[in-house]
Amino acid sequence: MQFNIEDTTTLLNIMKNRRDVRGNRFLNKEVEEEKILKILQAGLTAPSVGYSQPWKFILIQDAKIKNSVFQNFEEENNKARKIFKDKTLYKDLKLEGIKEAPVNLAVLYKEPQEKILGMTSQSKMGEYSVVCAIQNMWLMARALNIGLGWVSILEENKILKLIKAPKNTKLIAYLCLGYVDEFLEVPELKSLGWEDEKTLNECLIIR
Ligand SMILES: Cc1cc2nc3c(=O)[nH]c(=O)nc-3n(C[C@H](O)[C@H](O)[C@H](O)COP(=O)(O)O)c2cc1C
């Protein structure tokens, strides 16, 4: 398959307009099953070390589980507030959408039981493969005009227990998905002045 210049524009548009969506933007509107499946299928197309495909997905719609996860977020975020006590903006940030999003999705890394091609020197490559799947899902969600937010202010072991994760798994991401009232044009942490956008020059080193 060959792509053309319009395809690159579309791809770039999806990438540029992807946003992390928090609870203040989610609509109380069901996400169609076929769209959830499309997002999950996008995850399955990701590259993975040694083609190990080490991902597991737990789809969470149960309000009781969501409430417990939210409680854990609150506990962890209270700790974070103390860490950022000198940056007064932190306490006003909305950093999750666990209860507002109709769909929560935990993305796990299943530790391999045998040796994996490509993981003999760098042991984190399996986890990084799962992150590739997450990015694919994030972009597919955006192409479907569905918002996705990544919540990482959670205590891994508590969440694994709450969602009854299979043995030998690690929590890579806890995602919130749903339709939104608006996709912000600019990352919120940029517009609020929390961080500046880096230029290519700042990121690129040529040797
Ligand atoms: C690994 C990872 C963890 C993140 N964790 C959180 C989080 O806990 N809460 C939150 O509000 N946003 C979280 N984000 C979203 C980032 O804040 C967001 O991607 C960044 O500010 C840029 O904004 P944009 O995604 O809208 O472009 C996370 C993003 C990544 C990649």
- Overall pLDDT score: 98
Strand count, sense and closure of the main sheet? Answer: 4 strands, antiparallel
Overall body shape: globular
Structural class from helices and strands?
alpha+beta
| Low confidence ranges | none
Q: Number of helix segments? A: 7
Portion in strands:
5-15%
The neighbouring-strand order within the major sheet is 1-2-4-3
Radius of gyration: 18 Å
What does this structure look like?
The protein has 207 residues and is α+β, with helices and mostly antiparallel strands. The protein is built from seven helices and four strands, in the order ααβαβαβαβαα. It has a four-stranded antiparallel beta sheet, with helices on both faces. Helix 2 (33-44) runs antiparallel to helix 4 (125-143). The chain is globular, with a radius of gyration of 18 Å. The mean pLDDT is 98. Bound molecules: flavin mononucleotide. The site of flavin mononucleotide has 11 residues, from strand 3.
